[in-house]
């Protein structure tokens, strides 16, 4: 992201990112529910198009209930930038 901001003519002062992690040991975690519902929606297409087998999909879905597995949720990024001031000549 910093390079994209530089391309807009901005000086990147600071960029920070955080990633939410969750595991099956947190049954009330909304991130887990969002990912589970999303996976349930796309799984038939993934299997139908041959990206993975039904068995692999079910095994992957079971990870959402496994307290020993930590999964990566949403990534949040924040940047603080400014646009350099171009000096102008007096008229």
Properties at a glance:
91 residues, two-stranded antiparallel ribbon, 3 helices, elongated
Q: How would you characterize the overall build of this protein?
A:
It is a single chain. The protein has 91 residues and is an alpha+beta fold. It has one domain. Helix content is 37%, strand content 29%. The chain has three helices and two strands; from the N terminus they run αβααβ. It has helices spanning 2-7, 30-48, 54-62, and strands at 11-23, 70-82. Strands 1-2 form a two-stranded antiparallel ribbon. The model has no long low-confidence stretch (mean pLDDT 86).
Could you give a short account of the major beta sheet?
2 strands, antiparallel
Principal-axes geometry comes out as: elongated
User: Quaternary arrangement of the chains shown?
Assistant: single chain
**What is the helix fraction of residues, given as a range?**
25-40%
Describe the strand arrangement of the main beta sheet, using strand numbers: 1-2
Mean pLDDT: 86
Q: Which residues sit in consecutive blocks of at least 5 with pLDDT less than 50?
A: none
Number of beta strands: 2
Tell me the β content.
25-35%
Radius of gyration: 21 Å
């Amino acid at each position: 992201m910093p390079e994209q901001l530089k391309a807009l003519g901005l000086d990147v002062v600071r960029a920070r990112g955080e990633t939410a992690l969750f595991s099956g040991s947190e049954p009330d975690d909304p991130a887990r529910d969002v990912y589970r519902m999303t996976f349930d929606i796309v799984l038939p297409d993934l299997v139908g198009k041959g990206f993975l087998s039904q068995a692999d999909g079910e095994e992957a879905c079971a990870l959402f209930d496994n307290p020993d597995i930590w999964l990566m949720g949403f990534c949040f990024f924040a940047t603080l930038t400014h646009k350099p001031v171009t000096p102008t000549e007096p008229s």
